[in-house]
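Thread: Newbie trying to understand structure tokens

Hi all, I'm a second-year student working on a class project, and my supervisor (Dr. K.) asked me to get a predicted structure for one chain before our next meeting. I've only ever worked with sequences, so writing a 3D structure as a token string is new to me. If someone could post the tokens and maybe explain what I'm looking at, I'd be very grateful. Here's the chain:
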Amino acid sequence: MPAVDLTPLPPGVTREVRFLGEPVRVRTSNEGGAAVVEFALVVPILLLIVTGIFRFGVAFNHDLMLTDAVAIGGRYLSISRGVTTDPCATAVTTVANVAPNLNPTNLTFTFGFYGATGAALYGPTTTKTCSGATADLVASGTATLKVTYPCNLSVFGKNLIPGCLLTATNTEVIQ
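---
Reply by user tm_fold:
Sure, no problem. This is what the structure looks like when written as tokens:
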């Protein structure tokens, strides 16, 4: 086994042990700047990707929340025959209460009441009240509730899909 040289080296220089026939390589510690430059080039791209994933996750959460709220609101609408004087207002309140993370002023509602044969008895209308249409809620007919909500997919001030709308529709048999 060859003798190992233990003499001290100047600062920033390292020594490698080698086998016979291998060239001696001396490394200096000047390579730290390259890592900083690579980091500076990669970080903005990573931040853009992570922010985009986050914004998409928020929009997906809003879509799930809207779908669930419209399903529950549609059920309330279908069972409110003879129970309330304004079933549409009851459905609007239900949807707003079930989806607390959605801004209720941005929700757009469309109601429609249809007879057992499918003929439109009321609507479709975008009014949030239908107190005059309680007679149109007939048993075995259907009530349709459609709600739209604007989604925001902006990343660093740039909206990726301007005019994006989340939509959920529910049709229930009137009880």
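A couple of things are worth pointing out once you decode it. The beta strands are 13-14, 27-28, 108-114, 120-125, 142-150, 154-155, 158-159, 165-173. The chain has a mean pLDDT of 85. Feel free to ask follow-ups in this thread.
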